[in-house]
Amino acid sequence: MFRPDSQLAPFSPGKVAVAVLAALSLAGCAIGPDYVRPEAHLNLPAQYTAAPIATSPAIASSWWTLFGDAKLDELVAQALAGSPDARIASARIEEADALLRQVDAALLPQVNADAAGSRSRISQTNATPIPSTAPITRSSTRLSLSTTFELDVWGKLRRASEAAKAQALGTRYASETVSLSLSAAVVQAYLNLRAIDAELRVTSDTVSSQARSAQLTRTRFEGGIASQLDVQQAEGALATYTAALLELEKSRALSENLIGLLVGQPGLQIPAGDLRNLPLPPAPPAGLPSTLLEARPDVRQAETDLIAANAKIGVAKAALFPSITLTGNFGRESKDLSQLFSAPSAIWSLGAGITQPIFEGGRLRAQVDQVTAQQKQSLESYRKAAYTAFREVNDALVKVRQSGETEDAYTNAMKAAKRALQLAQVRYDGGYSPYLDVLTAQRTANDATLAWVQNRQARLSATVELFKALGGGWKNS
Q1: Contact 177, 428 (CB under 8 A)
Q2: Does pTM surpass 0.85?
């Protein structure tokens, strides 16, 4: 009776060679669909809908250096080298590479070395009669090499290798995503820190000015020129701005702690700076093509996931076909160790086996349906990643343009508020207006300057978002 998992009797060497050549002649084909990039399924516009505002030179991968801040460059380098997230991503790459080597090893024969020795004694009272001349103590020594090799006739192993290669590449893209996100997070946190530094300087100047004004008001009160109301208003304003200064110092310490976490240096201390000293990076060129999405590592990773899922369909389909295995053994066997390498001690065997699934309750076809459904999910995930990236680029372009346009308005408001403060102080000193006008003008000037700083931070942050959304930058055609 034929059994699907039974092995055939050993062939002669000639027959085995014929079987190998016949199998290899079929090995060029691989069951399952070949990967085709689904560009037609994305339906993305050729260019981004939010048109950039100007042209600029190409952007390097180290886009954060465009801010011209040596400390920022140092912090990003430290984060990319020493943060836990970066090290985890590196370890995942090592794991994926090891998995790929493991999968590829199945394409090569497995060779084992076997060595065995035994000595046994036969019972003299055994019921089975033995010749009187036969020794009751026997020795045996065996040394051999054996191999087992599955012929990849249907491409199952090659499809598995294809999937593993895609997954290994995907871990590299995942690592690039971590690096891009990490560098963007460091830059954003640094911009926030420098914005706080600028606000500290503005508020500190206001506190100093308010302290002088309060002292002058007390002097004027003692001289009978100012009222007690003026004194209380001046001291109240001084206390309010002092409290705001303390809140900003707290915010700066928290921002500094965040940067220390991102770069893997708890307790990090960063010298004071000023956001207003940072240059504006170049604006993106007009008509950025949507093909720049290919530079995004998360989109690339989504595509490698799709490639791996596509290859796994071939692995599952190949399981429906016969599996052909070749076996071989060559060595020496002798009852005397001294005769182990003599010609009569040689032993060898060659064989081939074939296994064909006959009935498995639909399990294999269910696996094909399962991986096919997973491939459809990966396709939609790839499409979603591309759509999300396209939206993020458009959003960043809108923010860059709008924050740039509103900066002129904030600049004019800040200049007007400072002039109004000067006029209010002159009028108060001349006795033409109450001190309340000075306080109002001081508050307006302070708020206008802080608003300008916050808008500049938003403008720089939008540029960082654009770099990140584009996968690091752009290139002119």
Answers
A1: no
A2: no
